């Protein structure tokens, strides 16, 4: 091969490398492999048989997730209240801020590992991920829009005509394909690469410190009944003795109208707590030490208090100062930096 040919190949190599560096998102998407269950996770509950994740469907769902035209005045997207760097929560707000800066009554829950969820939202009422986006889109204090108006706006954009055609074989935009596309993005928001996960998978070099290991043993003794591994939630709705808030949020009762469901809220995952504060359904605790102290000494004997918090003649979970330090050390191992920096989940 002569010198001229070497120069051509060298230039092509530099060009390709530069393209990859300049377009990391494009490179990530091109390597798209679809949904894969992490080795240390159980089987998902989402109905993939009726909505398999495809590259085109995921790309469409991702575009819709960050599309402000889903709101009445085209200013609020799903990604406005579910920010990736905060593990898809609205970091810094005790309750969500929606359209026209209207305040909700609950903290934005994280979007992660939803393929394993059987119920959605802090107070329940939705039991299929494909239906969940209806609530924020139509809620007065969130996006305040109608689905038909959303579809009308999207139909006027050639970009979405092409994306829907690529994903579903037709440019038609309706509720069925719109919701399936959003689900295809959301089920791919998988957090499974924390240090805890690597330890459980016995990956090389992954191990707990002594404080973390002590915290893990304590967690299994005192917390795992509600925050079951590896998702760190049992998906149930429980009353954890927060006391009645000024807005008197009745929790699950609002959806079921069953008296014993009053003040029950969905058990959140403990993954990525470093990124998801403030904590609880109404964001009342600004720090994790505050959460632990609640369980140690501040649990209120409210109606329907979970039986696990009323044992041996007392309410709450006794946690010494050392217990709390060790628990905090263990909980830190559930942070998944790869998840919050996963470029394929980011806005373009």
Automatic annotation (TrEMBL):
Names of the cofactor(s): heme
UniProt-recorded Gene Ontology molecular function terms: cytochrome-c peroxidase activity; electron transfer activity; heme binding; metal ion binding
Binding site for heme c 1: 78, 81-82
Keywords, ordered alphabetically: Heme, Iron, Metal-binding, Oxidoreductase, Periplasm, Peroxidase, Signal
Domain Cytochrome c: 210-335
PTM characteristics: Binds 2 heme groups per subunit.
Cofactor note as given: Binds 2 heme groups.
Record: residues binding heme c 2: 223, 226-227
Localization per record: Periplasm
Principal place of residence: periplasm
GO cellular component: periplasmic space
Protein name, as recorded: Cytochrome C peroxidase
Protein source organism: Pedobacter antarcticus 4BY
Lineage per the UniProt record: Bacteria, Pseudomonadati, Bacteroidota, Sphingobacteriia, Sphingobacteriales
């Amino acid at each position: 091969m002569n010198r001229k040919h070497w120069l051509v190949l060298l230039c092509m190599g530099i060009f390709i490398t530069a393209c990859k560096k300049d377009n990391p998102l494009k490179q990530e998407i091109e390597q798209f492999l679809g949904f894969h269950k992490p080795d240390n996770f159980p089987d998902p509950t989402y109905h993939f048989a009726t909505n398999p994740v495809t590259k085109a469907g995921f790309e469409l769902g991702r575009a819709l997730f960050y599309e402000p035209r889903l709101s009445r005045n085209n200013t609020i997207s799903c990604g406005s209240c579910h920010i990736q760097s905060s593990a898809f929560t609205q970091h810094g707000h005790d309750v969500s801020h929606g359209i026209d800066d209207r305040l909700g009554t609950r903290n934005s829950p994280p979007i992660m590992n939803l393929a394993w969820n059987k119920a959605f939202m802090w107070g329940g009422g939705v039991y299929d991920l494909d239906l969940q986006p209806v609530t924020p889109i139509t809620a007065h204090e969130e996006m305040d829009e109608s689905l038909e108006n959303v579809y009308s706006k999207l139909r006027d954009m050639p970009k979405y005509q092409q994306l829907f055609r690529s994903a579903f074989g037709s440019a038609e935009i309706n509720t069925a394909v719109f919701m399936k596309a959003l689900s295809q993005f959301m089920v791919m928001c998988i957090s499974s690469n924390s240090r805890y996960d690597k330890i459980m998978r016995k990956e090389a070099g992954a191990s707990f410190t002594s404080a973390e290991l002590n915290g893990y043993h304590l967690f299994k003794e005192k917390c795992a009944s509600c925050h079951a591994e590896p998702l760190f939630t049992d998906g149930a709705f429980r009353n954890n003795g927060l006391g009645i808030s000024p807005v008197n949020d009745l929790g699950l009762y609002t959806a079921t109208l069953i008296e014993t469901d009053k003040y029950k809220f969905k058990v959140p995952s403990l993954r990525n707590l470093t990124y998801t504060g403030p904590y609880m359904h109404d964001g009342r605790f600004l720090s994790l030490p505050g959460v632990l102290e609640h369980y140690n000494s501040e649990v209120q004997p409210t109606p329907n208090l979970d039986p696990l918090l009323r044992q041996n003649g007392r309410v709450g979970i006794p946690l010494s100062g050392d217990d709390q330090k060790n628990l905090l050390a263990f909980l830190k191992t559930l942070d998944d930096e790869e998840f919050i920096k996963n470029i394929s989940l980011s806005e373009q």
